[in-house]
Write a structure and sequence with these properties.
The complex is a heterodimer of chains A (75) and B (204).
Chain A (H helix, E strand, L loop, with lengths): L1 H15 L3 H21 L3 H25 L7
Chain B lengths: L1 H8 L1 H19 L3 H23 L11 H4 L19 H28 L7 H15 L16 H32 L4 H10 L3
Helix pairs in contact in B: 2-3, 3-7, 5-6
The chains are: A mainly alpha (75), B mainly alpha (204).
Chain lengths: 75, 204
Amino acid sequence: MIILIFLILTAFISLRVKDLLSAAMIFGVYSLLMCLLWAGMGAVDVAFTEAAVGAGVSAVFLISTILRTSRRSSD
Amino acid sequence: MVAIEALADKFNYWVYIVIMMIGLYAMVSKNNLIKKLIGMSVFQTAIILFYVSIGYKDEATIPILYHDQVHGAHHAEEGDHSDEGAHHDETHAMEAIAKEATHHGNDHAVDADHAEVDEHEADHVIDAHVMHNESDHAFEAGHGGLDIDPNQFENPLVHVLMLTAIVVGVATLGVGLAITQKLYGEFGTIEEHEIIEQLRTGND
């Protein structure tokens, strides 16, 4: 229940914040919370993959793109 | 009162709808291309959350067989259980498959009836399969069998499907970010309205 509420909060904040680097980090937190939720629901294989791919590789992709382009966002 | 109960009862599904709509809103109305892609990822994970919630059962554990459940089930070992009971050797599993193949021909219809009668969770394909397996033991009494109850385990079918969806999600995110970098090289910005402005005033 608490994880679900934090999930909504992190999704909202990561799309709200103007600095793209912090948006990427908060998106990583969102992925990790999602992973915890799935591990709690018994989908351990999905949770493993999400932890490796969602929180790890996606965040690296986003950060590398942000460093190659610009860090500011207009909205 | 009823509304509050429905809200608390299916809280996962309400959260899934909210997160999905947040992602859709970001995809449609954000100007920054990276923000759009983050919104797309949020949208995808919301769908995965929905499917994993479908497979969840109360009082159920993860879909893995433990040693004592497989013990004494040598004759009932089937092809799809041989990877779970990894301590059985290959030849044994092969033997069991051959045995099953000869066995299935005659009492398939009977099994189908049986599974429908005690349909507790028969709409789940995997559960139906496990039940099928159980009702098989009724026929070959004395051979021993897997003493498992399908309600004890969560439905692993949705987990397997969603595993693929996660990998597809990171692939689409990677392609989108690559296109974003190309656009930045071309236009010098990752804001959508500025790109459209440049296209309109004539980049040529």
